[in-house]
Amino acid sequence: MKNFLFLSIVALLLFSSFKSDKPAYNLYNKEGKAVKYEKMLKVLEDADIVLFGELHDNPISHWLQLELTKDMYKQNRKDLILGAEMFESDNQVIMDEYLSGKISQRNFEAEARLWPNYKTDYKPLVEFAKDSGLYFVATNVPRRYAALVNKQGFEGLEELSDEAKTFLPPLPVAYDSTLNCYKSMLEMMGMGDHVNENFPKAQAIKDATMAHFILHNWKPGKVLLHYHGAYHSQNFESIYWYLEHENPNLKIVTIHSTLQKDVSELEKENTGLADFTICVDEDMTRTR
Questions:
Q1: Half-sphere exposure at residue 28, Cβ-oriented, CA atoms within 13 angstroms
Q2: Burial class (CB in 10 A: 0-12, 13-18, 19+), 199
Q3: For residue 102, what pLDDT is reported?
Q4: Is 0.85 surpassed by the pTM of this model?
Q5: Exposed, middle or buried: residue 54 (CB in 10 Å: 0-12, 13-18, 19+)?
Q6: How big is the CA angle at 147 (ends 142 and 148), to the nearest 5 degrees?
Q7: In this structure, are strands 252-260 and 136-140 parallel, antiparallel, or unpaired?
Q8: Residue range 23-141+204-281, CATH number
Q9: Opening angle at CA 167, ends 56 and 84, nearest 5
């Protein structure tokens, strides 16, 4: 009787402590139902492309990226390919040279135009690829060409050299101005005389370039895990749209990241934006 009473008290205390936990994040499916990480991992077994939309300054996003990369490597081994918005397509040679051991880490980090938070947030992914013998694709458009589109529209790209065009998707670039991801950018700017209609096109050339190099490096039987800002795949648009535009038979799974004050339930406006949504406590510290 005493043992039963003791165990009952311990169970009550444990239950109470679980109830008072403050989770840093919760994971939800497309319908807004809470799901386990293992469930998502099971779904990813059948994917061709996994689009991981991160919050650039959020440590939970970056931690889960690394954990997911490790787990997908266990599932796929050498059939896993990595790719990221954070590396521009004209730096692919430098990336290849570093991963193959031809150049030093010091030279790679000095020459690859890395993001300010590279060492804390993206270096672990690159180093995992290097240690595991995985290919890592630099998918994003060189920023100078996004600036060119912002100034001259897609037409400005036609005047580039043949060598420069190897860092871009085939021209002319497909573009749907009615997609919310681009239309909303113009709406945010207002409809005055100074609205730059090329502004969303500069976003689109990033999406189109990332999709192009994802497809260029993916092969049947492989799975490509791509890291990018959440905006680049939310609502099944942007990169997702370009991938489907080129190959509607692809099995694409999207992961989205968002912040909420209360992560115990996914808010309506955050529901349905992706196949899976990582909902992080908005008080989470920033990485830069």
A1: 26
A2: middle
A3: 98
A4: yes
A5: buried
A6: 95
A7: unpaired
A8: 3.40.50.11550
A9: 25
Residues 154 and 172 sit within 8 Å (Cβ to Cβ): yes
**How many angstroms separate the CA atoms of 68 and 76, rounded?**
12
Report CA 245 to chain centroid distance, whole Å.
Answer: 19
Structure-token match 């009473």, residue found: 5
| CB 16, CB 52: distance < 8 Å | no
* pLDDT given at position 95: 98
Contacts of 253 (CB under 8 A, 6+ apart): 43, 44, 47, 49, 50, 51, 275, 276
The two tokens of residue 30 are 């497309």
Contact 250, 243 (CB under 8 A): yes
Cα 133–Cα 139–Cα 142 angle in degrees, nearest 5: 130
Rounded Cα gap, residues 241 and 232, in angstroms: 10
What are all long-range contacts of 256-262, with beta carbons under 8 Å and residues at least 24 apart?
Answer: 256/53, 256/230, 257/53, 257/54, 257/55, 257/58, 257/60, 257/61, 257/230, 258/55, 258/230, 259/55, 259/58, 259/284
Could you tell me the residue ranges of all domains in the chain? 23-141+204-281
Q: pLDDT under 70 in the chain at which residues?
A: 1-20, 190-195
**Look-up of token digits 């293992």:** 38
Residue 162: both structure tokens together: 């043949």
For 30, phi then psi, to 5°, come to: -60, -30
Is the peptide bond prior to 172 cis by the omega test (within 30 degrees of 0)? yes
